[in-house]
Amino acid sequence: MSLPPEKATELKQIIHDHLIKMDIHGKIRDVLAETVRGDGQHGQRSLSEEDFIHALQRRGIVEDVMKDLHFTNVPLRRYLYLQVLGGKAFLEHLQEPEPLPGQVCSTFTLHLHFRNQRFRSKPVPCACEPDLQEGFLLEVHRDGDASKMADATTMLSICDPVHMVLIKTDTSGDTTLISSYFLDWRRVLGAPTGKTSVSAELLGVGSECKVAVGVLNLKLELYPPLTENLSPDVVTTQQSLERQKTAEKERLFLVYAKQWWQEFLEIRPSHQSKLVKIFAQDENGVNRPVCSYVRVLRAGRLLESPRQAARFVSLLAQERAPVVGGGVRQEQWCSMMAFLCRNKGDCEDHATLLCSLLLGFGLDAYVCVGTKAKNVPYTWVMTCGTDGSITFWESFTAHRYLHRPIDPDAPPMVPQPKPTHPYRTLGCVFNNKRFLANCQPSDAVELCVFDFTDGSRWKAMSEEAVRSVCAPGSTSSLPPTPPLCSPSVAPNEASNQLELEMRYLLAEHRKDLGLATVWDDHLSYLLSAALSAYELERCTGVLCGNEEFQDAVRRAVPDGHTFKGFPIHFLHRNARRAFATCLRSAFCEEIVCCRGDHVRLAVRVRVFAYPEAACAVWIMFACKYRSVL
């Protein structure tokens, strides 16, 4: 069973305090000494862990621990226990062979989000009937007051669904979004026994959003049980009323948006071709206002600054929505939960996440919709400073560009600033509260003036209209915003493991060439400083610490010797893929295949962990050898 991290910590602390109180260490020492003496007298084999556990059970130590361990009998909060009891009808995997023991195979992982709580199942082999057997304990708390027990009426008004995202991970570590499903858990409120079973039919995503991909068998149970259950009719009536209310709000917004768009077209006929995007389809094929994709997202202690947030977003891989067959690029915006679980997405996903994080850091941030070179549609982020400065943020690279507009009315001899950014045209900007279309004579970014109070340059939508369908809780159809998860990668262990693999691959490659490999561990250690400086530069834009690294290398390389180093950056931890990429660089191959007198090789790997499964992987190959003229 999965518990929220704070609950697991609390439970561990209770057990730890109890074990200390009953002097468990002293009792274990006594039993261990007695068991070892007994085995020594009878000339038995060495004591195994199993023998020792049996000895503890015989002495009644385990029973004493369980008997005296008390938890509070009065629960203060209500919980939903959601059990996943396996899957069926995943027909795409009908011919999947049974994996052999120890064999690497593709896996399914189920991710859950409910009211600011996130969980993840253990990965299981992909199959027609995947063995997803998990239990998740979800806290159902009152809004603004989590200390009081939520009753049936309060819980009925909680329309937040359980968002379930199924991810497939192939043998190379590549992830695919299989399904994004919203479970209305409130049917359990009308179950006579306080328990109910559900067969959740999962649908595909994107172009396959109407096609069933499989079924999950679920069981829902409330703890502690309700003293009085609601009538099933009351639950269905509440759900029906919420759907009607949502549909009416969405209808009114659509009517307003059509009228607003007509007014925009009347300003200038050329506006018909501008990239003014009011709605976008999510992974389930649902049309949603673009403002609903942006939220104020605070990362707690996981990210320390806006620039570190930009670095984190840039580490999520880039991938366009897959298309079956040829044709034009299919646009698919993702809910934030699906994007984070998949750990990759297109420019729209990166831009909306970065904008959400920058809003969380108190900046006036907007998503920009426009084009870049060759008229390719694109999205990026901009922030407006209190001094009127405009900064563009590239979500794929974390690069920042200061916008300096060109004055088209300036005399020809007056020097004009040259744009450093890759953006060409701008159709509209938006965030969680505002939507503004560019109605300036030219939509070229270099000519844009970002004075949003000037109605002759920017046509704004009514903030009240945007709020009616995009504010959190405004409609029951909006996916709730998930919190960021702590890094899932242990950086030191990951660094050591990948470095060992790279050493092995390098030595084997040289062996195939008939070359011996002699490592210089001291030189390898010195490379850490450079890798740390490179990552710091990516986060802050400032290179520091390079002087110390250069000085240390000069001391480590004797007179008459040559030093060569090659750093490279990856978003994954697949050693073979990384090594193959490195060898495509002529300079790196020169180091790896170095021949000469007194050749010493070094390699250093640093994995920097970020929230979710994002990580920055830096690898540096180096060699030193005696120069022979």
TrEMBL record:
Entry keyword annotation includes Cytoplasm: yes
GO cellular component: centriole
Coiled coil: none
Keyword Cytoplasm belongs to the record: yes
Domain CEP76 N-terminal: 10-69
Residue ranges occupied by any CEP76 C2 domain in the UniProt entry: 75-226
Assigned keywords, A-Z: Cytoplasm, Cytoskeleton
GO BP term, pick one: regulation of centriole replication
InterPro entries: CEP76, CEP76-C2, CEP76_C, CEP76_N, CEPT76/DRC7_peptidase-like_dom, Papain-like_cys_pep_sf
Location(s), subcellular: Cytoplasm, Cytoskeleton, Microtubule organizing center, Centrosome, Centriole
Similarity section: Belongs to the CEP76 family.
Protein known as: Centrosomal protein of 76 kDa
Annotated organism of origin: Cyprinus carpio
